[in-house]
Task: inverse folding
């Protein structure tokens, strides 16, 4: 694990004193999350074709993690894990089933709100429909703008978005079955306008800003209608490339995402709050193989096996960049393993709030500050489409099984990051330890009952 030292003025202060200082200063916190971006689709993570200068700049200004993980391999459960600090063996939402958060679900937004922060969210929610207990205003957000329904978020030219609990009409857009028949207002630009306005209005008081962009998620309904689900207003710099249209669209979506990060960072600077703002950038799950685009075209997953809907590394390992001037050292890389369920305890420790006792995550603030920290012994995921799949990371070991009673596949990520060789038979003691953990890693869920399946695909 690579570690680094802080700048000199913090090096001799006791850790608890630092925490009290941060809470007193009340740093703003911005959490940016893209949608279905591949681990290898950013220049700072190895992308060779697509250009992402603004996100690369963010990485050069902060700490880039190589071994960070999403909460799940699809949208809704990953976002639930992020909000609640519970992994998918305990979280209320464990799949894309339209299950809303409950009144007793404690979110990171609620906790920072109680610590005196104004909270805002701009983008895609996916954790509660209109009229349910899961809408953002009931889950800790003072202001929010965007999509409630993740399916409706496929359409980048919707007839309306939500502004708190009111429909905000996008005049000129006409849609049918989530496919735009008349395109005037591209939702990403509308969301950006509202988000930048929030920063301007809140610049004189501490704020928590959650920005779950829809980019570069595809429009699945448009794909079925036209063969190309990569919905963009134009192809911009990629218009003249000799590529299939879906690949031009994917490239442009990532370009628009990168530009948005640049605009957000410029706004923080313009508002005079950039130096006192902690910024996270990540993605909600692995790269998509949808919309007519192929992950092989841009090598979207790099060396990782699998993609969205897999619990192999390509489905859950995601980019994570953290920038905090004067606190997090710039232009550094860490292989410390952590996941979305660690975000809530990390953020609450920074703002001086008390986190719930039953969390699956731990604060990674020591790692952010360049101090030694022991990783969690186990990391756990389960996925409820096509039967249940489970995955565990234990140190450098990764276990995957397709059913609660199925044989465990075992990979050594240190030597085999691409999970090409199942070494379970050669390491029975490791398999036994992981299986012992799996026996207690989860609780049953009435919304996501376990359905076993028979796996026909041969293990590599």
Result:
């Amino acid at each position: 694990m690579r570690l680094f030292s802080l700048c000199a003025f913090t090096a001799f202060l006791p850790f608890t004193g630092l925490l009290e200082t941060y809470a007193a200063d009340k740093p703003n916190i911005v959490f940016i999350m893209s949608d279905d971006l591949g681990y290898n689709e950013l220049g700072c993570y190895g992308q060779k074709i697509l250009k992402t200068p603004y996100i690369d700049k963010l990485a050069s200004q902060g700490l880039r993690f190589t071994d960070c993980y999403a909460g799940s391999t699809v949208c809704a459960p990953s976002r639930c894990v992020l909000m609640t600090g519970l992994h998918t063996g305990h979280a209320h939402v464990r799949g894309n089933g339209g299950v809303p958060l409950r009144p007793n679900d404690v979110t990171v937004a609620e906790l920072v709100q109680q610590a005196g922060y104004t909270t805002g969210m701009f983008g895609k929610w996916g954790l509660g429909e209109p009229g349910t207990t899961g809408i953002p205003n009931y889950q800790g957000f003072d202001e929010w703008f965007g999509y409630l329904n993740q399916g409706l978020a496929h359409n980048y030219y919707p007839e309306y978005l939500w502004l708190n609990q009111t429909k905000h009409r996008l005049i000129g857009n006409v849609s049918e079955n989530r496919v735009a028949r008349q395109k005037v207002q591209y939702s990403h630009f509308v969301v950006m306008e509202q988000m930048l306005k929030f920063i301007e209005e809140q610049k004189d008081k501490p704020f928590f800003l959650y920005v779950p962009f829809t980019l570069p998620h595809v429009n699945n309904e448009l794909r079925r209608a036209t063969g190309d689900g990569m919905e963009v207003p134009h192809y911009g710099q990629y218009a003249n490339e000799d590529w299939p249209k879906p690949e031009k669209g994917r490239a442009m979506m990532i370009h628009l995402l990168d530009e948005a990060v640049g605009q957000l960072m410029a706004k923080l600077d313009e508002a005079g709050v950039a130096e006192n703002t902690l910024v996270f950038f990540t993605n909600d799950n692995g790269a998509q193989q949808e919309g007519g685009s192929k992950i092989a075209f841009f090598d979207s997953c790099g060396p990782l096996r699998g993609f969205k809907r897999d619990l192999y590394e390509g489905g859950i390992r995601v980019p994570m960049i953290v920038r905090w001037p004067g606190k997090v050292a710039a232009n550094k890389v860490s292989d410390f393993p952590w996941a979305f369920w660690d975000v809530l305890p990390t953020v609450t420790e920074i703002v001086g709030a008390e986190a719930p006792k039953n969390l699956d995550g731990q604060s990674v603030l020591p790692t952010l500050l360049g101090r030694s920290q022991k990783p969690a012994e186990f990391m756990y995921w389960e996925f409820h489409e096509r039967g249940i799949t489970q995955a565990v990371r234990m140190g450098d070991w990764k276990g995957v099984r397709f059913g609660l009673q199925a044989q465990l596949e075992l990979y050594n990520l240190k030597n085999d990051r691409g999970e090409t060789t199942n070494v379970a038979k050669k390491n029975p003691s490791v398999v036994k330890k992981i299986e012992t953990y799996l026996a207690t890693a989860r609780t049953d869920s009435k919304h996501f009952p376990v359905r076993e399946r028979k796996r026909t695909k041969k293990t590599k």
About this structure: Confidence is low (pLDDT under 50) at residues 1-18. Residues 245-270 form the longest helix (26 residues).
